[in-house]
Amino acid sequence: YYNDSTIVFLNGEWIPAAQANTSLYNQTMHYGNGIFEGIRAYDTPTGVKIFKGKEHYQRMLDSAKLMHIKTDYTVDQLIELSYELLQKNNFTNAYIRPLFYLGPNMTLMPVEETNLFLCAWEWGKYLGDSLLRVATSSYQRPNPKSCHVEAKTVGHYINSILASTEAKQKGFDEALMLDAAGFVAEGPGANFFYEKHSCLYTCPLGNILPGITRNTILDLAKEHNIPTAVKLFTIDDVKTADSAFFTGTAAEVIGIKTLDDYTFPLDWDKSLGKQLLTAYQQEVRK
Ligand code: PMP
């Protein structure tokens, strides 16, 4: 993720990545209360552009608010710092990782001091390019009555790690998780869509991270006159579908070959997912 020349931002200072250290006595480390984002910058004909920076940083500030994490940073300031980060590292295509973590304090009560760490690295597609073999997870998404599932909180990712690990251990590439009521929710780090009879389906907000790529795909589908429906559905619905894919900033759009023992019958190259992957790759480089 970094080498000797990598520069990061920590609490107002630009420093070499190896010098970015923190106290082990903090609430984020022990109890998982921190907020992060995953953002991509792309090389475009008019220079490096951060894709949907406003949306990502607004989600970060909203997440912080929900978790009672205080910050004075504005969306515009965070975007500006992110461009500076890319410049300092000479990155043109990069993944940007901002993190709000809390200052030294081991309480379960709100902590006053928030630290901002910003780093970036050049990263290929998370989950790769090959079609995925996905397993229905035995882990549900966190109960929205127990936490703010729509916040991108550090601690929520233990759920993702458990689901991904279980899928890998069973010999699959990735997991698909249900919500507490048994409807399909999302993957450990990506939202889920399926195609049936030339219509795209994805689940509503409520049990998932409100994915920015999910919104972009719904917008692009509209532009391409592809019908979409946002509704609750079950694993059985998915197992009668023609095709399916995950969406996320890191994963972009990645096709799914199988779910458990079900093989999606439609050739990926002829699917709406593939059409939208192509449209997405053009959109992010505009
Ligand atoms: N769900 C989860 C649990 C995620 O971690 C991510 C990645 N941020 C997504 C969905 C996709 O969100 P986005 O499109 O905003 O990257």
From TrEMBL:
<dbReference type="InterPro" id="IPR043131">
    <property type="entry name" value="BCAT-like_N"/>
</dbReference>
<dbReference type="GO" id="GO:0052654">
    <property type="term" value="F:L-leucine-2-oxoglutarate transaminase activity"/>
</dbReference>
<dbReference type="InterPro" id="IPR043132">
    <property type="entry name" value="BCAT-like_C"/>
</dbReference>
<dbReference type="GO" id="GO:0009098">
    <property type="term" value="P:L-leucine biosynthetic process"/>
</dbReference>
<dbReference type="InterPro" id="IPR050571">
    <property type="entry name" value="Class-IV_PLP-Dep_Aminotrnsfr"/>
</dbReference>
<dbReference type="InterPro" id="IPR005785">
    <property type="entry name" value="B_amino_transI"/>
</dbReference>
<dbReference type="GO" id="GO:0009097">
    <property type="term" value="P:isoleucine biosynthetic process"/>
</dbReference>
<keyword id="KW-0028">Amino-acid biosynthesis</keyword>
<protein>
    <recommendedName>
        <fullName>Branched-chain-amino-acid aminotransferase</fullName>
        <ecNumber>2.6.1.42</ecNumber>
    </recommendedName>
</protein>
<dbReference type="InterPro" id="IPR001544">
    <property type="entry name" value="Aminotrans_IV"/>
</dbReference>
<dbReference type="InterPro" id="IPR036038">
    <property type="entry name" value="Aminotransferase-like"/>
</dbReference>
<keyword id="KW-0032">Aminotransferase</keyword>
<keyword id="KW-0808">Transferase</keyword>
<comment type="similarity">
    <text>Belongs to the class-IV pyridoxal-phosphate-dependent aminotransferase family.</text>
</comment>
<comment type="pathway">
    <text>Amino-acid biosynthesis; L-valine biosynthesis; L-valine from pyruvate: step 4/4.</text>
</comment>
<comment type="pathway">
    <text>Amino-acid biosynthesis; L-leucine biosynthesis; L-leucine from 3-methyl-2-oxobutanoate: step 4/4.</text>
</comment>
<comment type="function">
    <text>Acts on leucine, isoleucine and valine.</text>
</comment>
<dbReference type="GO" id="GO:0009099">
    <property type="term" value="P:L-valine biosynthetic process"/>
</dbReference>
<dbReference type="GO" id="GO:0052656">
    <property type="term" value="F:L-isoleucine-2-oxoglutarate transaminase activity"/>
</dbReference>
<dbReference type="Pfam" id="PF01063">
    <property type="entry name" value="Aminotran_4"/>
</dbReference>
<keyword id="KW-0100">Branched-chain amino acid biosynthesis</keyword>
<dbReference type="GO" id="GO:0052655">
    <property type="term" value="F:L-valine-2-oxoglutarate transaminase activity"/>
</dbReference>
<keyword id="KW-0663">Pyridoxal phosphate</keyword>
